[in-house]
Amino acid sequence: MEADGRPLKKSTSPWVYVGCGCAALVLLALLGLGGLTFLGYRTGKEFSEAMKDPVKREAKVKSVLPYEQLPAGYYPAFAFSAPMGLMEMAMLSDRDPGTGSSGPGQDFDERGFMYMNMRLMRDNKPKMERFLRGEAPRPEDSGWYQSDVKFDPKEVVRRGTVTVNGTEVLYSAGRGEIRRRRREGRHGLVTMVMPECSHDNRLRFGLWFGPDPAPDKPVAETDFAGTNADPAAIQEFLGHFQLCPK
After folding, report:
1. For the chain, what are the domain ranges?
2. Residue 141: pLDDT band by 50, 70, 90 thresholds?
3. How far apart are CA 154 and CA 176, in angstroms?
4. Distance between CA atoms of residues 169 and 164, nearest Å
5. Quick one: which of 106, 120, 91, 108 has its CA closest to 197?
């Protein structure tokens, strides 16, 4: 019970808020158009049904982020598609949602990965590229900037590119926090990845969250080998997925 006697609300994964923030403007535009109520209802119903069935849940995640075998210790948590193909999002968690999950209430313990793709809008793709390369500040129209979750990179560990199954992937890894309003945040390493998918009219990017091996040490004195800030680990992890459409 809350202090004022109200029942406690079920915790929602912070990744849900990240994704909702990325899709907020798109969904608001949809809601402003007449005749799309049924599409929204049908999408919500399909999402709810998929979350209750582990087979459907995995199939939905695979439809957004194709893979043959997940990295060890990761499970398909949920996936979501906005009407008319405007946005898709999939999440992996280190917590097994089991067979009784009724929605995206499952959180992660230490590690999680969210992957999104959305239609190109104005200059959202070059803005993201410049930010990841360290050439520009965080764009104000980025998904996490608009969401209830405040992704605040405190220290950049490294930036660069890796080649994954023939695709160049831009990444930026840093110490940061994913925090929800009125809830305790999660500190750790946050790695943003962005594959360069040729001949693709989508903005595709991912957020990989993991523990910091030595949060009290300066970056220069910390060994990040094997973490989500390690280029070799990034390459190996992303190698499980088909990041770009065939």
Report:
1. 14-238
2. low
3. 5
4. 7
5. 120
